[in-house]
Amino acid sequence: MQLANLFKREKREQQFGALPFVGDVIGSFYSLLGRYTRSGQTVTSNTALSIASVHRSIEVIANGIATMNLNIYRETVNGKERVTRSALNQLLKTPNGYQTSFDFWTYVMAQLKMRGNSYAVIKRDNNFVPIELHPIMSSFVRPYLSNGMLFYKIEDPIWEGKYSSYEILHFKGLCTDDPLMGKSPIAMHAESLGIDLAAMSSSADVYKNGVLKFLLTSDRKIADPTALRQSLDDVVNGQRRSTVLPEGVKMERMSLSPQEAMYIEQRKFSVEEISRIFGVPLSVLNAGNSGTDVELEMQQFYAQTLQPEAERLEQELSKKLFTESDRATHEFKFVFNSLMRASAKSRADYYNAGIRGGWLRRNEARYMEDLDKFETGDQMLVQSDLLTADKLDEYMTAKIEALQAQAAKNNNITGNNNDTQS
Predict the structure, then answer these.
(1) 293-335, pLDDT tens digit by residue?
(2) From the centroid of its chain, how far is CA 318?
(3) 43 neighbors 35 (Cβ within 8 angstroms)
(4) What one-character-per-residue DSSP string does 123-184 give?
(5) In angstroms, rounded to a whole number, what is the distance separating the alpha carbons of residues 395 and 402?
(6) Which of 251, 270, 379, 398 is most buried per CB count within 10 Å?
(7) 252: which residues sit within 8 A by CB, 6+ positions away?
(8) What global pTM score does this model have?
(9) How far from the centroid of its chain's Cα atoms is residue 49's Cα?
(10) DSSP class of 256
């Protein structure tokens, strides 16, 4: 169905020029006006960020990606090796003149998780080498097809114009209706978020108007009801310490507390919903846990949330920044080891297992800890007494010879075993 729509769209563009999808137009209105929900709340990216768990979820994902090292690797006959001398290495460290690498990736991921799409203009030198990356707010960009080729129209005041696909980094979220654009998680789940916003608004109104409300009843006529009502309001608002009710007047409490109105329960349910929407564990949102081990939750978060996001970024970077010849042998890779920096025990366990298992060099572990190398640190160790791998044959030969000598000594023909007889 999507393929047929693409053909129809291309035919239409050949006749009338490139036009946006209807979904693009709707997306533009959503960016400006938000989505009005049945709860009575208008949900936009900014109003959704006022929900603490939404803000925290986006922040955790963005920071998780930004804190990882992004390296370039090249395939060789011996496996993969890291590329350290390349113009792209400097680009990764300093994407532009006004952002650090951390700032750039947090902005990219925030746009992606809020709006479903994130864009950056690729600035190149005269040799077509990428030298700068400039992020653009998603609402200013519209991708479209023209004669079977992908272009981007930017309405940003600084970068306004038409760009080819290789001039733009486009990181897309989940695509369903339109293969050229991802869908905003906030737009897709506007109803759920609207309920949370409504609960917040209602709770705020309760506190603003006073948690306590009363009904006055009497079996006789009250002489001055206005004055009585004013005196009670003064007590409730803290302007007076006490008042006196006329004879025969009874006072009954009317309003419910936020707990009784189930605001607290609704907010807890909303946190769980938001946790599922963004794939962030409840323990990370400081909202308890789902009943599983926290360490297992974090492993699932890395594997099911951060890993797919990293793969999405890596593939787009490789496609747009490498030359055609380099794409076959080079790749960008986020290093998840950076996430272990927060835990000394996790780092120690990882290094210990790698060094003892013979798949990690000691100098590699020291490099990850920003420590200097030492002379024999590039030699692999094996589990047997932690010898270097090239000494293993020599060690085993010496071990066998020692055992044979000991056996011969214990079984000599004179019967004087171990030289115990004089």
Answers:
(1) 777 788 888 888 999 999 999 999 999 999 988 998 999 999 8
(2) 20
(3) yes
(4) EE-TTS-EEEEEEE-GGGEEEEEETTEEEEEE--TTT-EEEEGGGEEEEE---SS-TTSPPP
(5) 11
(6) 270
(7) 214, 215, 217
(8) 0.67
(9) 15
(10) P
